[in-house]
Write a structure and sequence with these properties.
The chain is α/β, with parallel strands linked by helices. Helix content is 46%, strand content 19%. The chain is built from 21 helices and 24 strands. The strands form 6 sheets. A 5-stranded antiparallel β-sheet has the order 1-2-3-5-4. Strands 7-9-10-12-11 form a 5-stranded mixed β-sheet. The chain has a 5-stranded parallel β-sheet with strand order 14-13-15-18-19. Strand 20, helix 17 and strand 21 form a beta-alpha-beta unit. The protein is flat, with a radius of gyration of 34 Å.
Length: 710
């Protein structure tokens, strides 16, 4: 943010000066006269409150970026607003009128936030977004505006009051004019009301008949799925049998005739499938079955499935870009795959040379899947028509490819069914890009299978992390971040649930969001740090607004801004939980060379290293020293690593120590699954690159709860 001006409020004329400065800055920033008046009125109301109830304060003017917004912050050191919630909800009654100015100001502004603490004063942040036609201001332009306003001497307060009175008179005249216009319109409406009522009755009757007919059609199609598809499948199967010569040879003419039959059945089958799918969506008979899946795995499946669509010797390349740092999706994987199949199939049909590229990018709480091609493109006037049923745009390629005109309409309906939206960008002769923005978490899911975990399922081998967060998508991401680590997420969505959880168990740390729906996270933070029973629990505040200073002043142990990536979150939790503790890593490996290599990798870390040359020695060290984490080899004489792992997990003293498997043994799927339940990570000594091995090992240590940076 760029600071434009700061004004101290000590005297009543300073209230008038604040109004003047607001108007001047708003005019310089490109706001029209009405917005200038709104801003000046809002600032004078809040500043007057600060002067009247707190004997003064500070007004700061800023310009924020992305998007550009004019922000005003009014801060005082008064007694605070004791009934802030009632004031904001319009329930507070005061003889002095306190609260009316706050409510009125909030209606005038695009952004309005109030923070008030007893005996610590009140802070009001309000803002208005720049007009759409206003140009983006550069740093030098903002500097020039600042110098212009600073160079102006304050106007006479009486002139500002006179100007305010003139604005009020103009507003009253405008209101009177609108009132007369409303009276005239009401008279006209009364005269035509009877005719409109009669017309509505007739339209309702027609609409009801049309709706009934449409429902009958949709119900018929959705219920006839089996009856339509069965004979078509029979025709296709019999055609394949004849062409495969299962009952003898065919003449040349017979083969040509059967081939025509098969092609006709294929085309009819595609048309019937699209029609039935559309009918099922409209009838509400398509059920969404959300599950958790990885985008990279979906791309891998589609890559193999769609490659046969490429004609042999084709000049078109089908490219799937590997998604980077993509969270798992909780949606209907089959329908997402169907959406992408339709996009890719269309792109390949209308691309003669070049490439078809499939990508996925996370944008907030959604993932945008895009299919870009270098094909013939679509004219601007046709870019909406292609999503209408049975519409096909004429082109020199249209006659060469088969289609029903139902693929894109079905794709749009399926995307909307998943809570997303479809868009297209195209230019004739240069290609097209079709995109589907799909929510990371299906918005209409009754429940997420992994969220929230019941408190009764606390595992002794994990450290519980209490999360206070009301957004389901964010909870889902946190849960994925903490998987395969030494931590276990316990999710709560309200302050009441968080307080109840704290009565049942003591978390290793608390992740707290401030902007909870209808609640203020600062309240819980103050409670936690004011109670002897909970003040030592590390609290990590994660929110969308940069309030780090306030969070740390109120006692938070750490602060991060959303969205948070996995490793930074784990590193922050490790640092807070291990603060002041000695970290010990136990190496259990019979090969001294490997032990030496690991120690060299960790030479610059604050870890204390213990070495055990065999399983028996490792078990003894684990029981007596209780290290922070264990790095375990599987192939050892006398007692194998598997036996060591079993004994560690069945011993009450060592069962909670996180274990990292580090071995050259080739593991089958069943053994990998078993080890995954008992360890934090499974690493191979056979990694080709030393840099990759180091990166994997350090990441595993972070997941095990170790702090590697001194």
């Amino acid at each position: 943010m760029t600071t434009l001006f700061t004004l101290e409020i000590h005297y009543e004329q300073d209230v008038v000066q604040a109004r003047q400065r607001t108007r001047e800055l708003a005019e310089q920033l490109g706001f029209d006269a009405q917005d200038q008046t709104r801003l000046a009125t809002a600032v004078s109301e809040i500043v007057r409150n600060a002067f009247q109830y707190a004997s003064g304060g500070t007004v700061e003017f800023y310009v924020a970026e992305n998007p550009q917004m004019f922000l005003i912050r009014v801060q005082d050191q008064g007694q605070g607003i004791s009934d802030l919630a009632n004031v904001l909800q319009g329930r507070y009654v005061s003889q002095t009128g306190m609260g009316l100015g706050i409510l009125g100001t909030r209606r005038l502004m695009d952004l309005f936030e109030v923070e008030s603490l007893p005996e610590q004063g009140t802070t009001v942040v309000m803002g208005k977004t720049f007009p759409k036609r206003a140009p983006t201001l550069t740093e030098s332009q903002l500097q020039q505006i600042q110098e212009t306003v600073l160079g102006r001497s304050p106007q006479n307060p009486y002139e500002e009051i006179q100007r305010q009175n003139q604005e009020l008179l103009r507003a009253m005249a405008e209101l009177r004019k609108r009132e007369e216009e409303l009276i005239r319109l009401n008279q006209e409406l009364e005269e035509t009301n009877r005719g409109v009522v009669a017309l509505y009755a007739e339209l309702d009757e027609k609409a009801s008949s049309l709706q009934q007919a449409n429902e009958l059609k949709t119900r018929f199609l959705s219920n006839m799925s089996h009856e339509f598809r069965t004979p078509l499948n029979s025709v296709l199967s019999l055609s394949r049998m004849l062409l495969a010569r299962m009952d003898g040879d065919l003449t040349v003419e017979q083969e040509k005739q059967v081939t025509f039959i098969q092609r006709a059945a294929d085309g009819l089958s595609e048309l019937v499938n699209d029609l039935l799918d559309l009918a099922k969506v409209e009838a509400g008979k398509i059920e969404v079955r959300p599950s958790s899946f990885e985008v990279s795995e979906l791309f891998g499946t589609l890559r193999g499935m769609l490659r046969p669509l490429l004609v042999q010797g084709s000049a078109v390349a089908l490219i799937f870009e590997e998604p980077k740092q993509m969270p798992p999706l909780y949606s209907d994987e089959g329908k997402v795959a169907q959406i992408l199949r339709n996009f890719v199939s269309n792109a390949l049909k209308f691309t003669e040379r070049g490439e078809v590229r499939v990508t996925a990018v996370q944008m907030g709480s959604t993932v945008t899947f895009s299919v870009s091609d270098t094909g013939i493109g679509i004219a601007p006037e046709d870019q909406e028509r292609i999503f209408e049923d049975f519409v096909q745009i004429e082109s020199h390629l249209q006659k060469q490819v088969k289609g029903t005109g139902l693929g894109l309409p079905l794709t749009r309906r399926l995307t909307e069914l998943l809570g997303g939206r479809v868009s297209v960008r195209s230019q004739l002769g240069q290609g097209s890009t079709f995109s589907a923005a799909i929510p990371i978490v299906y918005p209409h899911a009754d429940e997420l299978p992994t969220l929230p975990q019941p408190i009764a399922s606390l595992k002794a081998i994990h450290l519980p992390i209490l999360v206070v967060e009301d957004h389901t998508e964010t909870l889902f991401i946190y849960e994925k971040h903490l998987q395969q680590t030494r931590y276990q997420l316990i999710a709560t969505r309200t302050l009441a649930q968080a307080r109840q959880a704290l009565q049942q168990f003591r978390p290793a740390a608390i992740i707290l969001d401030i902007l909870l729906e209808g609640q203020n996270g600062w309240t819980l933070l103050q409670e936690l740090k004011g109670d002897e029973a909970t003040r030592d629990i590390p609290v990590l505040v994660i929110t969308v607004i940069d309030n780090e200073k306030q969070a740390l002043v109120l006692g938070a142990n750490g602060f991060l801004i959303k969205p948070v990536e996995r490793l930074p979150l784990l590193h922050k939790l490790n640092t807070l939980i291990n603060q002041g503790k000695i970290q010990t890593l136990l190496l259990i490996d019979d090969d001294p060379a490997y032990r030496y290599v690991v120690k060299q990798l960790l030479v610059d870390t604050p870890l204390q290293i213990l070495e055990a040359a065999n399983g028996q020695e490792g078990l003894a060290f684990a029981h007596s020293e209780q290290p922070t984490a264990i790095l375990l080899d599987l192939e050892m004489p006398t007692i194998s690593g598997l036996d060591v792992l079993d004994r560690l997990s069945h011993n009450d003293v060592t069962r909670s120590i996180p274990v990292i498997i580090y071995s050259s043994t080739q593991l089958d799927v069943e053994l990998q699954s078993r080890l995954a339940e008992q360890s934090i990570a499974i690493l191979s000594k056979e990694t080709i690159s030393q840099a990759v091995a180091t990166s994997q090992l350090r990441e595993a240590f972070v997941k095990a709860g170790l702090v590697l940076d001194a």
